[in-house]
Amino acid sequence: MDKTRLAGKKALITGGAQGMGAAIAKYWAAQGAAVCVADLNVEGVEKVAEEIKAAGGEATFIKLDVQDEEQAVAAVEHTAKTFGEINVLLNNAGVNKPLFFPDITKSNYDFIMGVNAWGKLNVMQKTTHKMIEQGKKDYPYKIINVGSILSREAFDDVTVYTMSKHAVLGLIKAGAKSLWQYGITVNGYGPGVVRTEMWEQLDRDLVEIGKFEKKGQSMDSIADNMILMQRYSYPEDVVGTAAFLASPESDYMTGQLLMIDGGMVIQ
Ligand SMILES: NC(=O)c1ccc[n+]([C@@H]2O[C@H](COP(=O)([O-])OP(=O)(O)OC[C@H]3O[C@@H](n4cnc5c(N)ncnc54)[C@H](O)[C@@H]3O)[C@@H](O)[C@H]2O)c1
Q1: What's the 208 CA to ligand 1 centre distance in angstroms?
Q2: Which of 13, 20, 160 for mutating ligand 1's site (highest number of atoms within 8 Å of CB)?
């Protein structure tokens, strides 16, 4: 592993307590980035930061509800103060709760859109306020927004999640056009089916609403029928592309969403 690939990168990572956020925090730190891991689950991010430091990396942590404006400002300030600057945001925190279309409620909509759409816009905006204040550098600031296959595709039982991930694509496109004048690029990636707690919960919820009969069936059925590479993925399948988007290798890119899905969505 190239320990200097992300040297000088000072990143805020939301939803960093588990799953892909935690895996990326560790991978980026091992390649030289300083990372602030932020999450609703503060014990989780404290543990991730301790693990990174024990392995010789640079890390800090903070409690963050991505929907809260004051907490978003505090997380950005904490990152910039601890590391001297903030130059990368991994806008990763996300939630899902499947419902058949006739059963969708306002509270289901508010829960998913609140975190996945407003939460992303909120943390991105507060980060870019700070980047604008820091002034243009001879390297681009980088915003990385986590989308999904459902930023470009649609599944019937996750309508609101699909809407929220299409919103992430809109945020990437509009953000790129709005922010380059300040030296900020905006990109993202779309995982497919990743074995994390989010999918374990989704699997349980899909059985509960009667979409599948037994646990594990959702993943196996999608892997067999919808994934070109015929296997679901793990956070380790995603970390490399996330590192590329944080690194100087992607400096000439903005407004792009890269799929990491084993060939589920090909456009
Ligand atoms: N797992 C998949 O198959 C999959 C597929 C496509 C996209 N994604 C996306 O990837 C990202 C990471 O997913 P994951 O699978 O690692 O999920 P995960 O559930 O394992 O982790 C998500 C983290 O976000 C945190 N979080 C939730 N709400 C929050 C809030 N309001 N404020 C701060 N933190 C909050 C949780 O505490 C958790 O630590 C999400 O944006 C998700 O939508 C996941």
Answers
A1: 20
A2: 20
pLDDT tens digits, one per residue of 216-235? 898 888 888 999 999 999 99
| Three-state helix/strand/coil letters over the chain | CCCCCCCCCEEEEECCCCHHHHHHHHHHHHCCCEEEEEECCHHHHHHHHHHHHHCCCEEEEEECCCCCHHHHHHHHHHHHHHHCCCCEEEECCCCCCCECHHHCCHHHHHHHHHHHHHHHHHHHHHHHHHHHHHCCCCCCEEEEEECCHHHCCCCCCEHHHHHHHHHHHHHHHHHHHHHHHHCEEEEEEEECCECCHHHHHHHHHHHHCCCCCCCCHHHHHHHHHHCCCCCCECHHHCHHHHHHHHCHHHCCCCCCEEEECCCCCCC
169: pLDDT strictly greater than 90: yes
Domains of the chain: 10-192+235-260 (3.40.50.720)
Distance 24 CA to ligand 1 centre (A): 12
Closest C-alpha residue for ligand 1 atom 36: 15
